[in-house]
Recover the amino acids of this structure.
């Protein structure tokens, strides 16, 4: 966090711009520190719809990522959030948007289309 703080201070010393960060899941203490540093927007993608998330991510839960989104918005920062489209899930398994069933007062929402490649886990058929 010290390195991030130094970077933000250096940017603010040179130019008057809004600062955005994308540093993964956060604790409330970290969110509060970002607010204190003057971070304007936080980018935090949810990767996939909650129902499909365990097929894509095994190191943490959807709720852990979602909680970061909530803390960021509740702290007053803008939230840029999105997910990946085209990770091999069947079209019958529901909406493809990771944000389709929830609202978090997003400032920006982005989706990225994944191009399957041989050998990549997402290229393996789920049928």
């Amino acid at each position: 966090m010290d390195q991030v703080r130094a970077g933000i201070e250096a940017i603010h010393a040179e130019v008057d711009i809004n600062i955005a960060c994308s540093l993964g899941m956060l604790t409330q203490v970290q969110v509060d520190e970002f607010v204190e540093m003057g971070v304007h927007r936080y980018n935090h993608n949810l990767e996939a719809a909650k129902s499909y998330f365990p097929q894509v991510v095994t190191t943490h839960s959807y709720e852990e990522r979602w909680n970061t989104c909530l803390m960021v918005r509740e702290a007053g920062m803008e939230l840029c959030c999105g997910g990946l489209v085209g990770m091999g899930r069947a079209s019958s398994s529901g909406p493809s948007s990771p944000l389709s069933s929830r609202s978090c007062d997003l400032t920006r929402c982005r989706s990225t289309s994944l191009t399957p490649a041989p050998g990549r886990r997402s290229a393996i058929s789920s049928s």
User: Anything to note?
Assistant: The two ends are 43 Å apart (CA to CA). The chain has a mean pLDDT of 77.
